Amino acid sequence: MIAFLLPLLLAQQVKMPPAAEIRPLITNEPDREHLTLQAVLDSVEKHYPPLRVALLEQPIAEADYLAAQGRFDLVLRSFFDTNNLGFYDSRRFDVSVEQPTTLWGTSFFSGYQVSGGSFPSYDGKFQTNGLGEYRAGMRMPLFRDRAVDGRRADLRKADLNRRLADLTVQQQRLVILQAATARYWNWVAAGRRFAVAQAILDIAVQREKILETAVELGQLPRFEVLDNKRIIEQRRSQFVAARRGVEQTAFDLSLFYRDAQGQPRVALVDQLPPAFPRPSNIDEQQLERDIAQALDRRPELARLSTQQDQVRVDQRLAENRRLPGLDFILSYDRELGARRVPRGPNELRAGVVFELPVQRRTATGQAVAARTRINQIDQRLQFQREQVAVEVRDAVSAVRAAYEGTNVLEAEVRATREVEDAERTRYDLGESTLFVLNQRELQTADAQVREVSALADYYRALALYELAVAQALRPRP
Question: What is the per-residue pLDDT for 140?
Fold first, then answer.
């Protein structure tokens, strides 16, 4: 009876440990305890230096707009002169203000002058009554500079530059968020590979004690222990490489993931999420919607349209300069104090000033150049629309392929795990060898690593898709 039961008892003692318990690679549960992608993106929005540099384009554009507004500032002029030692002895003081406006290019002026002494007849307009002379008036263009002039053109272009600065920030933001997203999923994938490497190492380490016990009981040859030691060292090297992968991706992620002071923060292994979120596919209807949204949201298209608007301003300004200059001037003068001059005391003057460069080659050349640049931007804009549509279709194709790959590899992992479990049972019954069991375990681990890579590829492809459709610029509810 003892001879019959002893082999059964020994078989129970040398039974191999079960397959390592590895957390599922995919989960539908929200993660509230570990480092999430949203936390990384929030850190990017607040502290990422290149994005903050891009944001400084906006105050620069605002300053340029303020400088363009300065061309409509109220201008104050004054002077004082005297004439001594000659036949005429005179003194004159004049002060005036001029206010340009955006209303049809009209400018308003007002001034005051007072003089004393004697003036020659040809300077009689400088002589005033005892309390001086007050004047006010306006100058309004009737043809050239009525619809647009240099000041208004500069102001409009500065306003468009503010729009370009906003679009530059949006474009930089999209690229930076996509890069941060890719770094995050690289880190998660490295963590899952590390978990797989640690799990298969633990299997070999646990098996070593059982095999040594079996050798001591005479159930197995010493060779099995030596072979398992080889397996342990092999898997330990894979474990070290996987750990290095986690550290490297954490360092890369730290450029985007920062603390409250804006300093890089290295994510810890304990912060790794337990699994990837459940992937989802993109159907054909969503693809068409995404193309329309991308054409509406992509900053590159809006930049080209805004640049075209700036060139149109140049075109209108050049065409304006080809018009004849005909300005209407209206002024009112009033003499004050004791009467000393033979004019006034009130005068209302009106007149026109005409000017026309006969050949107008400068304005004509500028207009032709502006029209040509507009046609160039039209061509670029059309090509950019086509390119955006192709990018969206390619990104969706990549997401779909990655989604199918994750499903295939998920099924492969289940199949290899079942084969590994069956092989372990055969080994426990003495119908297999440690070499074969090791191969089965490595096959399972390899399938799990490839599933991790497939999931990482899916989420990197999803990040490129979100970049293509400008997902980060979608209107928030």
Answer: 92
One domain, residues 385 and 333:
no
**Cα separation, 50 vs 173, whole angstroms:** 9
Nearest to 177 by CA among 297, 36, 53, 41: 41
Does 248 lie in the same domain as 198?
A: yes
- State the pLDDT at residue 475: 57
Same domain, 158 and 290: yes
- Which domain does 346 fall in, by range? 106-144+326-359
Q: How many CB atoms lie within 10 A of CB 178?
A: 19
Give the pLDDT score at 98.
Answer: 93
Q: Say if CB 268 and CB 180 are below 8 A apart.
A: no
Q: Enumerate residues 6+ apart whose C-beta is below 8 A from 71.
A: 100, 151, 154, 155
User: Do 164 and 260 sit in the same domain of this protein?
Assistant: yes
Kindly state whether residues 132 and 164 are assigned to the same domain: no
CATH of the domain at 384: 1.20.1600.10
Kindly state the tokens that stand for 425.
């049972």
- Whether residue 330 contacts residue 137, with contact meaning beta carbons closer than 8 Å, is answered with yes
Under 8 Å CB-to-CB from 202, ≥6 apart: which residues? 20
DSSP at 277: E
- In this predicted model, what pLDDT tens digit does every residue of 308-332 receive, in sequence order? 999 999 999 999 988 888 889 999 9
Instruction: Establish if 333 belongs to a structural domain.
Output: yes
Distance, CA of 215 to CA of 9 (rounded, Å): 14
159 lies in some domain: yes
Both 282 and 346 in a single domain? no
Decide: 203 and 17 in contact? Cβ < 8 Å: yes
Residue 18: per-residue pLDDT:
52
The answer to whether residue 134 is domain-embedded is: yes
> Cis peptide leading into 345, omega within 30 of 0?
yes
Residue 438 lies in a domain: yes
CA distance 128 to 131: 8
> Based on the domain organization, do 395 and 302 belong to the same domain?
yes
The alpha-helical segments, DSSP class H, found in 255-360 are 284-297, 299-321
216-220, 231-235, 354-358: range with highest mean pLDDT: 231-235
* Cβ neighbours around 334 below 10 Å, total: 15
Alpha helical stretches, state H, 220-298: 222-254, 284-297
Q: 174 and 262 share a domain?
A: yes
> E strand or H helix at 88, and its extent?
none
Count the domains in the chain.
Answer: 2
Whether 251 has a pLDDT exceeding 80, the answer reads: yes
For 189-219, give one letter per residue: b (16+ CB within 10 A) or e. bbbbbbbbbbbbbebbeebbebbbebbeeeb
pLDDT > 90: percent of the chain = 38
How many whole angstroms from its chain centre is CA 344? 67
